[in-house]
Amino acid sequence: MPTVRIRERGQVTIPSSYRKDLGLGENDTLNIVKIDEMLILTQRKPYGDGVARKVETAMRRKGLTLDDLLANLKEQRKKYASETHGKTKA
Q: pLDDT digits over 34-46, tens only?
């Protein structure tokens, strides 16, 4: 999972492979949705069930389960804690 750094004015760079896959260009506009502690960027306004179906389909294609995502989230939190505070969370 790529990581990005937030720049001085809140700017982030979307990896070029993602921009290419989604057909995103320099002046395209994205929507940003905050769900709990997550930010989700979309090309169109998301509608609950539609977003859930797309996530489920993408996970199925890649052979991922919810347990896989939660395990990765734990690892990402540990990495973030280590990088930010110099220690890991249990």
A: 888 888 888 876 6
0.85 exceeded by the pTM?
no
β partners of residue 31: 42
Triad 83, 65, 51: Cα angle to 5°: 85
The amino acid at residue 70 is L
Closest residue by Cα to residue 41 from 80, 11, 77, 7: 11
Read off the pLDDT of residues 6-29 as tens digits, 9 standing for 90 and up: 999 999 999 999 999 988 888 888
For 6-33, letters b (16+ CB in 10 Å) and e give: eeeeeeeeeeeeeeeeeebeeeeeeeee
Q: Domains plus CATH for the chain?
A: 1-46 (2.10.260.10), 47-90 (no CATH)
